[in-house]
Design brief:
273 residues; alpha/beta; eight-stranded parallel sheet; three-stranded antiparallel sheet; 37% helix; globular
């Protein structure tokens, strides 16, 4: 098995990164003011423990229930995520990072504060989707990381195309990837499905692997226990969330047994490589 930066940052190749979905936070429309931040913390603590007890390789924290998403999050969201992760840190036994959905600069700032080692996001391109037109600026994002002294510590997984979106220029996905690979200095590419829980574009993954055998590739949605061989045959790592939930339902808490079953099979697959 070839060695990439995953061995140094996560501790293994063919890595599984569990996504901890924070419940809605202050200023979010779905925030439970009666339950408050204690409810959000207890739910996250349950999911962290379930994933770690199940043998997960790493964790990434996300404001997944901040519906509808914003390209620039409120101060309350960023402060809440920093508070929650800081409170959870004594529980963390695996490498971790954070993702402020659709706000790359906020993600960089948050990881600087919490000591995160991995993040993901849309770093480049102009796309039309549910939030309207989103125009990313890779030069600013990478300079933000560089100016914080995090070039080595914080690895950035660049989405080629975001979920549920289309590029306004009409370029082919592979052309987008070629341009990003040449100019944007990605640590890795992330390939997504149409939405959370949906299978990734395997054809795009195959083409990227053929073009760049040494590139780190992440499957970002739709990975489950039945697709381990198929996905990890091409991908170096995966972000996993919905499959780990009770009954595989997005809104549910994490089921430790589902995590353990997945990781047992993944570790057996890794041992054969």
């Amino acid at each position: 098995m070839r060695k990439t930066w995953l061995s140094d940052v996560i501790g293994t190749e063919k890595a599984a990164i569990g996504v901890v979905h924070f419940l809605a936070l202050p200023s979010d429309p779905l925030y439970d003011a009666e339950g408050g931040m204690e409810k959000v913390y207890e739910a996250a603590l349950h999911d962290v423990r379930a994933m770690q007890n199940g043998g997960i390789d790493a964790l990434i924290f996300s404001n997944e229930f901040s519906f509808p998403y914003e390209t620039k999050v409120s101060q309350e969201i960023l402060a809440s995520m920093a508070y929650l992760i800081g409170r959870l840190k004594p529980e963390l036994k695996v490498p971790y990072g954070a993702n402020v959905i659709s706000d790359v600069d906020a993600s960089i700032a948050l990881n600087a504060a919490i000591g995160g080692s991995i993040m993901r996001g849309q770093f480049a391109g102009c796309f039309s989707g549910n939030m309207g037109v989103v125009n990313s600026q890779p030069g600013g994002f990478l300079r933000h990381r560089h100016n914080l002294g995090l070039d080595e510590q914080l690895k950035m997984v660049h989405y080629i195309v975001p979920e549920s979106s289309a590029e306004l220029g009409g370029r082919d996905k592979l052309d987008i990837a070629k341009s990003a690979k040449f100019m944007n200095l990605p640590d890795a590419f992330g390939i997504v499905g149409a939405q959370a829980g949906k299978k990734i574009d395997m054809e795009l993954m195959q083409k990227c692997r053929e073009l760049w055998p040494e590139m780190v590739l992440f499957a970002s949605t739709g990975v489950n226990v039945d697709t381990i061989e198929e996905i990890f045959g091409l991908a170096d790592a995966a972000f996993i969330a919905t499959h780990f939930k009770v009954d595989g339902v997005f809104e549910n808490p994490v089921d430790e047994t589902r995590v353990r079953n997945f990781m047992t099979k993944l570790k057996a697959y890794r041992a054969e490589l």
